[in-house]
Write a structure and sequence with these properties.
Gln_synt_N; alpha+beta; ATP-binding; Gln_synt_N_sf; Gln_synth/guanido_kin_cat_dom; globular; six-stranded mixed beta sheet
Amino acid sequence: MSQQQDYVLQAIDDNDIRFVRLWFTDVLGTLKSVALTPAEVEGAFAEGVGFDGSTIEGLTRRSESDMLLRPDPSTYQQLSWHGVERSARMFCDLSTPDGQPALTDPRNVLRRTLERAASLGFDCYVHPEIEFYVLGQIGLGAGDVEPIDSAGYFDNISGGISHAFRGRVVRLLEELGIAVEFSHHEGGPGQNEIDLRYADALTMADNLMTFRTVVHEVAAEHGVHATFMPKPHVDWPGSGMHTHISLFEGETNAFYEPGSQHQLSRTGRQFIAGLLRHAREITAITNQSVNSYKRLWGGDEAPSYICWGHNNSSALVRVPTYKPNKSRSARLEYRAIDSHANPYLAFAVLIEAGLRGIEGEYEVPEEIDGDLRDLSVRERHVLGYDDLPHDLDEALLITEQSELVAQTLGEQLFEFFLENKRNEWKSFRRQVTEFELRQGLGL
């Protein structure tokens, strides 16, 4: 038994833990959980915990249903929110009964991509800015979604629960060992943002799954509703998850080159070029819901066109320079992704797209200073700027032709993902919306 496993067993005993929750995700990034009593944890380390993988979205075929959960002791943390009786959690890797990593495990997909990056000499770090809404009332009609406040960007609110809500989330995250950089009110009513301090991509994906759970738990404590839906209301700004990415070669930031434009190295420029070239084919992964495209094409700061720039809020990829002389802070920001995505799959395709830019020595196009939304369709076409997909259907048609996504996800998970999202689009397409009724009935 490893030292980490010994530490976990001792921590369970020292803290009188009653339940250990084993966490993993399905193809969509929905958190799954099974609770073990302390007496079963040592056996879980040694042999895994068996379950029927065919009942979980996208994990295995019914003819190959037996799977094992293998807890990762490095992810052990005690849970401390209200209503959890002395519980802890560990994230799990999934395996087949013969001990092979499950090809359809989203966590394994990201790990494979990071191993590929390591073979090229790179460690990958990410830092997400996570936006979400807190609502006091929810319903199915447009008027049945009520925010908890009417504040705006960076507003300091007297009274209400916004400060207390964010403060409680941050405290719980820090108790779980998840470092928070800052938090604030965002531009929409009841909209908030919490930024996690950078970490390696696999740890950050785990942290994001924990983050979502903590936000929902705090919402339940306050008797309100939290949503990571990209566009919960037509008149409100969308919620995205701008993700900062950096590559390191040992202690050296591979994106930093003093004296170059934006202090950005050739490697960084090639990574940008990879993100831009492959943006359309990975969008179904980074923006996986029907609602995601209401944000991308909603007319706010979400990117709609494939371009890059510096201090340009409309660009798909931005090069921030908050600390231009600090080499470790050099990074790229991908602005299309939303927090409804499966973080394991989304990070994997973003990193793979950038790595292909480096390997293929892609040339980055000229950066954009202005806002492409100010140009006409013809002007953008003449200048050679492509659109991101306009809806989930278009995104899926592009993704199903993508060798990059198929190879990154693996054939089986790729097909499961496409099938699930095609079914979502078909269900959406059958709906008769309030807009159609108003138009058709003259209301």
